[in-house]
Specification:
The complex is a heterodimer of chains A (about 500) and B (about 425). With about 500 residues, chain A is α/β, with parallel strands linked by helices. Chain A folds into 3 domains: about 240 residues, 3-Layer(aba) Sandwich (Rossmann fold), CATH 3.40.50.300; about 160 residues, P-loop containing nucleotide triphosphate hydrolases (Rossmann fold); about 60 residues, no CATH class. Chain A has 17 helices and 22 strands. The longest helix of chain A has 16 residues. Chain A is globular, with a radius of gyration of 24 Å. By secondary structure, chain B is mostly helical. Chain B has 2 domains: about 290 residues, ABC transporter involved in vitamin B12 uptake, BtuC, CATH 1.10.3470; about 70 residues. Chain B is globular. Chain B starts with about 30 loop residues before the first helix and ends with a helix. The chains are: A alpha/beta (about 500), B mainly alpha (about 425).
């Protein structure tokens, strides 16, 4: 049982000016689920790229031993030939192709004369789908599947390549709880079939639930490998390894003293932009100054849709309802009007909707309130730099210069840039959609601290989050949203993960 | 390379490592200046190399006063088009119609002035109005209906070429009155005398150098006041001296030919205005924001439709200016005028560092890109290179310039 399928010894990988990995060791036993955790930028993904041949042999130091033999992969095809398959965080499926076409992409089932044998491909795909527990017709285009099902298609694709070592990069980051549980079950079943699995994850509860052992990486070095299966490894224990310190309290303390009402939404309904159904239905919601209000809901409950429709009607059509800011009804028909009325919306997908990744920090920070830096249409570039510098200091954006390109920052620092941008508009209400998604533990703590500071300054904050512990740790009050309707409003003193989950799953049947 | 600070951007648990050294990073030594922005410096180097190359191959004829004047007269309208084109490309669009708009605006002007005998300035105003109207037409379809600019302007290219033929009844019109010809063929000469050379041209050159030095120095002072990194003072002086020398050499040569071309004044004003417009105004910055990430710009409150609309109105306006210059230079309007001009303008923008995906590019870069094309065409014509070979060389230069851009980006990306 204790034989080792993979050993990486003394791996050092340097980029110009940066050593990403320094003498990293990793040993994975045959047939186990091995978790790798560490803060963003710790070097987890780099290590996996070394393993899968994305960084070819020779571009790093150290040796990789797979199945008892030293290996020198020159590319991803080499590693796949050995049965090492990596599934990236951003899924790599072609949306308009069918499930079967995606599974056998680059590995097509050929028939006579080199033409593709579609019958065989679809039949084989069906078998693979069954083994991952996905009941879908193999000819269905992938775009019609949800993220959870697409993840399963990726795994089916890996299985089609005779996978022996499956690497998953943040497999549940984009999944809701039900899909996550399903995926973890599948990983357990694959383990029974003898497939070894390496899983990079930020979700420590998943690691303690499923992994046999876990290796902690910090600043490009191996910190320790913990035997999870033997028990006694708690989440706090792993966090200590990741950050090199104990987080005595993960959520910073805050004295709550809500003031007057800042934002009220009445009978808010939103129709889907292309389909004839209501995505948000009759929502009532209010936030007071100095208050953090949470919105809890499963994927598809309409959380983001609600937020974006309020923010200058950026989503949906046929929007009805009243929007009241500081006791005055406002229209906010465009984003510019919403900003003028003191509303700010921090998107859940900062790379696609939040930032101009090819531009520098300075110009991203000023983007939503450039008018404040301009007279008669002329921008004062020096004032702009001053504002950006101020943000860099206030929010502790780790960068040598505000002229640094945003695309090269870590997730946590990018999120701070987005926050800076919205803070510069000087909003009364901040709607934060998944504010800590995909950022590491240390940066999360910083974001929480920033939120607390804002509330202490009298801002009202709405937090949308998929992580219930986060809402429980941050909020004064939590609304639950299910199928576009508010199903509960729970003061923090009475909220538990259990009763929130119950409200979030209430009344899920589709409404006519 | 060792002098550049090793970036400690990696977030560490021990926070608060304030990067105090940020003040003097980057531009403090020449090598960092060149290497740090290889793409930008690359085109200047390329221009210098190409100018030198043709000077050698033509035994200095390409740098003669007469020929330098010629280059200005011959390629000014392409440069005017490139200004508008690079803005459209930064915004993430393209405009294939500008050649046809050049023809149409020139044709309308010619019909009014030559056929109907209106004064020359009526022709010019009418041409500009036509350009603005065409731009508004494109802007409407792109911004408010949401049709890709490639399609809209491809349709415009056919549409406005057809209208040109209609307006001209398929025949060429000429000649324009002398005032109209002055736009492209006129010179400011002998205003304040000079013996064998034009003192006025030299004076304008000197004023330009002084303006460059003063504005550069003021920017520098402001930067220092805001505690921003600046290049070392000797380097600053060297840069001003180098640019000044180039401008004065250029002015000297012009002064020994026919003086200061009016069209050069028009071009210089446009480059100055649009250079500032793109870098320093809210409108310009929103163009970059839209090209860089449309969704993020929309969610930041940028009025995307309005900006897109005016981007095309502006393109139409500049195309009309180019149309006036071209019709003035060719002293008439022809049905086939401006054919393929759009491709030269697009090539200038891309050689000058604009990105196909939008969000990147500069007016000055497009000007340098346009000059590279101009100097090459002109040099090859002087050498009597066959038309077919000229086309091959220009095509390869465009390809290599963009390939260099892609390579450079990949290199920057790999350094991550």
């Amino acid at each position: 049982m204790d034989d080792t399928i993979l050993e990486m010894r003394g791996i050092t990988k340097r980029f110009p000016g940066v050593t990403a990995l320094q003498d990293v060791n990793l040993a994975v036993r045959r047939g186990e689920i091995h978790a790798i955790c560490g803060e963003n930028g710790a070097g987890k993904s780099t290590l996996m790229k070394v393993l899968s041949g994305v960084y070819p042999s020779g571009s790093y130091e150290g040796e990789v031993v797979f199945d008892g033999k030293p290996v020198h992969f020159r590319g991803i095809r080499d590693s796949e030939a050995q049965g090492i398959v990596i599934i990236h965080q951003e899924l790599a499926l072609v949306p308009y192709l069918s499930i079967a076409e995606n599974i056998f992409l680059g590995n097509e089932r050929r028939g006579r004369g080199g033409l593709i044998d579609w019958n065989r491909a679809n039949a084989d795909a069906g078998t693979l789908l069954e083994s991952v527990g996905l009941r879908e017709n193999p000819v269905t285009p992938v775009i019609q599947l949800g993220v959870g099902k697409q993840q399963l298609v990726e795994i089916a694709k890996a299985l089609s390549k005779q996978v022996r070592l499956l690497i998953l990069d943040e497999p549940t980051a984009a999944l809701n709880d039900v899909d996550s549980a399903h995926l973890l079950d599948l990983l357990r079943r694959l383990r029974e079939q003898g497939i070894t699995c390496i899983m990079i994850s930020h979700k420590l509860n998943e690691i303690t639930a499923i992994a046999d052992s876990t290796t902690v990486i910090r600043d490009g070095r191996t910190v320790e490998t913990l035997d999870v299966r033997s028990g006694g490894v708690t989440q706090e224990r792993i966090i200590r390894g990741m950050v090199g310190r104990d987080l005595d309290s993960f959520y910073p303390d805050r004295v709550s003293s809500p003031g007057e009402e800042v934002l009220r939404i009445e009978d808010w309904s939103v129709r889907h932009p292309t389909q004839d159904r209501l995505v948000v239905e009759g929502v009532n919601l209010r936030v007071r100054a100095g208050e953090v209000v949470g919105i809890a809901g499963l994927m598809g409950a309409g959380r983001t849709e609600l937020a974006m429709s309020v923010f200058g009607r950026s989503y949906g059509r046929d929007i009805r309802g009243r929007l009241i800011v500081r006791g005055r009804e406002v229209k906010a028909r465009t984003v510019a009007e919403a900003i003028d009325n003191g509303i700010a919306y921090v998107t859940e997908d900062r790379k696609r909707f939040g930032l101009n990744l090819i531009d520098d920090i300075r110009r991203n920070v000023s983007a939503a309130a450039l008018g404040k830096l301009a007279r008669l249409g002329w921008v004062n570039g020096n004032e702009e730099i001053k504002v950006a510098e101020q943000s860099r200091r206030d929010l502790n954006i780790k960068t040598p210069s505000v002229m640094a390109v945003v695309g090269k920052l870590s997730g946590g620092n990018q999120q701070k840039v987005v926050l800076s941008k919205w803070l510069f508009t000087d909003p009364d209400v901040l709607i934060l959609d998944e504010p800590t998604r995909g950022i590491d533990v240390g940066a999360k703590f910083e974001i929480y601290t920033i939120i607390n500071r804002l509330v202490a300054d009298g801002k009202a904050v709405i937090v949308i989050s998929s992580e219930l512990p986060e809402l429980l740790g941050m909020c004064d009050r939590i609304y639950t949203l299910s199928a576009g309707r508010i199903t509960g409003e729970v003061p923090i003193g009475m909220a538990t993960q259990e009763n929130l989950m119950e409200l979030m799953t209430k009344d899920k049947e589709p409404v006519g | 390379m060792t002098s550049t600070k090793n970036p400690s951007t990696r977030p560490t648990a021990s926070s608060g490592s304030a990067p105090a050294a940020a003040l003097h990073t980057g531009a403090s030594d020449v090598r960092a200046l060149l290497m740090g922005n290889l793409r930008q410096s690359g085109i200047y180097v390329a221009l210098v190399v190409i100018v030198a190359l043709f000077a050698i191959m033509t035994d200095g004829v390409s740098l003669s006063p007469g020929n330098i004047t010629n280059i200005v007269l011959q390629y000014s309208y392409i440069l005017v088009l490139a200004i508008g084109m690079v803005i459209v490309i930064i915004g993430g669009h393209i405009d294939l119609s500008v050649g046809s708009v050049v023809a149409l605006s020139g044709a309308v002007s010619a019909v009014l002035v030559i056929r109907q005998g209106q004064p020359w300035w009526v022709g010019i105003l009418a041409a500009l109005a036509v350009g603005v109207a065409v731009g508004a037409w494109h802007g409407f379809w792109v911004a408010y209906v949401g049709i890709p600019a490639f399609i809209v302007t491809l349709a415009g290219m056919l549409l406005f070429r057809g209208l040109t033929l209609r307006v001209l009844d398929n025949i060429s019109l000429s000649p324009f009155p002398a005032e109209y010809q002055q736009v492209a063929a006129g010179f400011l000469n002998g205003l304040i005398g000079g013996d064998g050379y034009d003192a006025f041209t030299l004076l304008v050159g000197a004023l330009a150098v002084a303006g460059y030095a003063v504005s550069g120095f003021r920017t520098r002072v402001a930067r220092v006041r805001y505690q921003q990194p600046v290049e070392s003072f000797p380097l600053f002086v060297a840069r001003v001296a180098a640019v000044g020398a180039v401008i004065m050499y250029f002015a000297w040569q012009l002064a020994h030919a026919r003086g200061l071309p009016i069209v050069l004044i028009i071009l210089a004003v446009l480059v100055l205005v649009y250079g500032l417009l793109t870098r320093r105004t809210v409108f310009g910055r929103q163009v970059y924001a839209i090209g860089g990430n449309l969704s993020a710009a929309t969610l930041s409150g940028v009025k995307v439709k309005t900006v897109n609309f005016w981007m095309f109105v502006n393109m139409g306006f500049l195309a009309a200016i180019a149309g006036v210059i071209y019709s003035s230079r060719s002293n008439g309007a022809q049905p086939a005028a401006g054919n393929m001009f759009e491709l030269d303008a697009i090539a200038a923008a891309f050689i000058g560092g604009a990105a196909v995906t939008g969000g990147v590019g500069t007016v000055v870069g497009a000007m340098v890109g346009g000059l590279i094309m101009a100097v090459m065409s002109n040099g090859m014509q002087l050498m009597g290179v066959d038309q077919s070979l000229q086309s091959v060389v220009k095509g390869l230069v465009l390809l290599i310039a963009v390939a260099f851009d892609v390579w450079n980006k990949r290199r920057a990306g790999a350094a991550r």
